Amino acid sequence: MKIIIAEARMKNIYVDLQNELRDKQATWLVTGAAGFIGSHLVENLLLLNQKVIGIDNFSTGSKTNIEQVLIICKNQAANFTFQQMDIQQAADCRKVMFGVDFVLHHAAMISVPESIERPDFTNAVNITGFLNILCAAREAKVKRFVYASSSAVYGNVSTIPIQEHQVNIQLSPYGLSKYVNELYAQTLANCYHMETIGLRYFNVFGPRQDPNGAYAAVIPRWIRALIQGLPVPIFGDGETSRDFCYISNIVQANLLAATTTHANAINQVFNIATGSEITLNKLLVLLKQELALENVKTEYNDFRPGDIRRSIADISKAITLLNYQPTHDLQSGLREAMQWYHSTHH
Fold it and tell me: How far apart are CA 187 and CA 138, in angstroms?
């Protein structure tokens, strides 16, 4: 009974926040606005009557994502401005920051395998680019700087579920770049009295996530293969586990982080996930059930460099300090997203 009451109270807090935002307009900068996560942030902010500035250089983001958002938010389109730019250009970062209240920083090079192939490029985008946006936000005196970090900062951790203090040696330049982001954010916050919050995402999934390419995330890649009758590629033995987090939970975490008045939450990092794990083999069974498929071809490959064996988050810190409460587990997220997957891959 206590757990049910606590969950209801936390859900009400998020509902109350959304109502407050509808009544009080602010200006938000979303970097990586044409990407999977960024486009959902833009969409939800516009639907809450916020002013949004989106930036992207379309290296991985898609113009189609922006077009889809503007169809959904046609009544709020006047509140959105978009600029094609690269966060590696410090002067452009300063220009776009004028009048911004909140920054949600999601522009990044996000592929672990690609970061191993191109560590210099990863550094230029994820560290230099991050610092450009962070410094521009400091100069513009934004109220809060919220940024995407990653579970990749943990490396291989022996104790499960993973708590925020368990940072280990990173297994890829991508993981390292995200940890350096956290250090920069905390250091500049101390030096300049900035307010920053880092969100360590675990395996995010949902509509508009790109299924194409060698580095695509597992859920959209597998669903595309299943719908098209292609072999499902599995790296390793399939007993690798992940904590899959639906996009709606990520949007919630960003809005809570940007607006929290809890003093102990400021200049912290938080795990954002569901707090549950599933192996890849069991994920495949679940996807087959959701798609009503029986005969599926699988293709087992070697483990990929940089991949960890088990990943499940302890989300108690986010629950306590941000009032974060996931609204979707893996199955409900898949059911909500399935129509989009079908419409995209048939």
Answer: 12
Catalytic residues: 174
Tell me if 46 sits within 8 A of 69, measured CB to CB.
yes
- Of 133, 171, 136, 137, whose CA–CA distance to 151 is shortest? 171
User: What is the distance between the alpha carbons of residues 328 and 178, in angstroms, rounded to a whole number?
Assistant: 26
Q: Which domains does the chain possess?
A: 2-205+247-274+306-327 (3.40.50.720)
pLDDT digits (tens, 9 = 90+) for 276-292: 999 999 999 999 999 99
- What does the mean pLDDT of the chain come to? 94
Q: What percent of the chain has pLDDT over 70?
A: 95
Which alpha helices (H) appear in the chain, and where do they start and end?
2-23, 36-47, 63-72, 90-96, 112-117, 119-123, 129-140, 173-192, 218-228, 247-259, 280-290, 316-322, 330-345
SS3 217: coil
CA-CA distance, 241 to 120, in Å (whole number)? 30
Given this model, what pLDDT does residue 274 score?
A: 98
Query: What tokens appear for 237 in the block?
Result: 């033995």
Model confidence, pTM: 0.95
Query: Shortest CA distance to 244 belongs to which of 179, 314, 312, 188?
Result: 312
Sign of CA dihedral 38, 84, 51, 177: positive
